[in-house]
User: What shape does this take?
Amino acid sequence: MKLLLLGAAVIAGSVFGMFWLNGGQFETVFHLNELVLVVGTALGAFLVGNTSRVLGDLRAVVAAAMRRRRHGEAFEQELLTLTYTLLQTSSRDGDRALDAHLDDPARSPIFQRSGHVLANTKLVDFTVDALRVAALSKGSRGELDSLLAMEIESRERRMMHPVQALHKLAESMPGFGIIAAVLGLVLAMYDIGAGAATAMITRQVAVAMVGTFFGVFACYAVLSPIANRLSQSVAVEMTGYECVRAAIIAFLSGKTPLLSADAGRRMLQYGALPSFNALEGWVRGAEDGR
Assistant: This one.
């Protein structure tokens, strides 16, 4: 968030601050009619060009980015301890005992201790399904690994659809600005034919150029950076799925629950990669808190 605010301040200072220092007046830049034309056209094009599912996925991607920012290391700790505890339950008490937790994660004491993870319902569903399939496919971990990899790839593609749509919208913004400029020039040409004063014509041309400015500014200073940030967030979000996948495959390969959780640890990118000692401490804390 600090970098986001810093970047916004630098953009505002560089563009509008230098405009003001060079004698520009803000009222000459901010014209509501041009802004409504550019933003309204962009919004309409975005709604026409995307399905309701993509719009819903965009909300989910933004929510995931905000959730990751709030949780950070707490999410990593809960995910790793949850993975370890589930695998330890399977190893010590058998798959039947594990099923009791997988049947209703919201009421499972194991899942309830991991509130941040439990809030990520898609990751919980993936974990539950993966563990169920793992219990049925022991001895065929290669096939399960490929299956989980394909599912993760499919989930990532879906999460990237709204980000790609936002990238395309950003690329289109200069064109919407040109539409506003052309319409402004049409009005100026009409007034020239009607014998309007030169000062009035010049003012209309300047207003028309404001539309182009809005389009270019929205593309390169607003939407493109946001889309790029969301694409990075999606990549990091998927490491949670990779963590679960790596841990389960390691467990099926004969690794202990702790070493299996360590295999998952190496997939995480939510913050600074936690050390093995940190993982061991989290696991001991989870065992002591049982």
Notes: The chain has twelve helices and no strands.
